[in-house]
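Supplementary Methods, section 5.1.

A reviewer requested that the exact input to the structure prediction be made available. We therefore reproduce it here, unchanged from the version used in the analyses.
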Amino acid sequence: MERFTDELWQHIQGIYAAILEHPFVTGLTDGTLPPEAFQHYVLQDAHYLRDYARALAITAAKATSEDEVVQFCQDAAGAILVERSLHADFISGFGLTEAQAAATAVLPTTLAYSSYLLRVAHQGSYAEAVAAVLPCYWIYARVGEALLTGSSKDPLYRRWIETYGGEEFQQIVQRVLDVVDRLGQDLSDRDRSAFIEHVVRTSQYEWMFWDAAWRREQWPAEIAGSSVRGALDG
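The structure derived from this sequence is encoded token-by-token as follows.
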């Protein structure tokens, strides 16, 4: 019998393939990723992980078993710990202080992705919340696993690959996949469609997040600063 996760992967395998082919991801191992793009990614990921942790905490509050409450609470704490430890080393490597990193703007793709996660977690069912947070687990694990063999000569890139390709993270993700397969057994057709929709959407956001870093995305100049204030005053 096909597992629900097998069905879900069929819906996002094209997105995953596009992620693996993206120059940001290939550049992690072949040495072509500009340091400025990685710095952009890390600074935005720090913002994202704070809201992802909140989404995981809401998911935990909606969980239907005590084991899953514990699981998602631990993962929420883990997201914060990653932001504090892994990113702290990266930020130090960039020659920035934590205060300088925290002061960077939350950029369009980061805001859109985290806002979607929090909306679904707040307004949706437990299953919908799990669906929304799933790709950040799943795709990172598969990307890390795929890059692990080639690794990287750059110590910062190599640490990133080893974090997400390593056995500890793979085990965390497998526990979430087990939850998804259990949930899939009891979903109505309507709930199943909603679950798939959320997984596809946040998988697309995963691609967009790496692409935004590659492009060094910024807010459009015409809506920044005094232009915004002028528009509001008018």
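DSSP finds eleven helices and no strands in the chain. These observations are discussed further in the main text.
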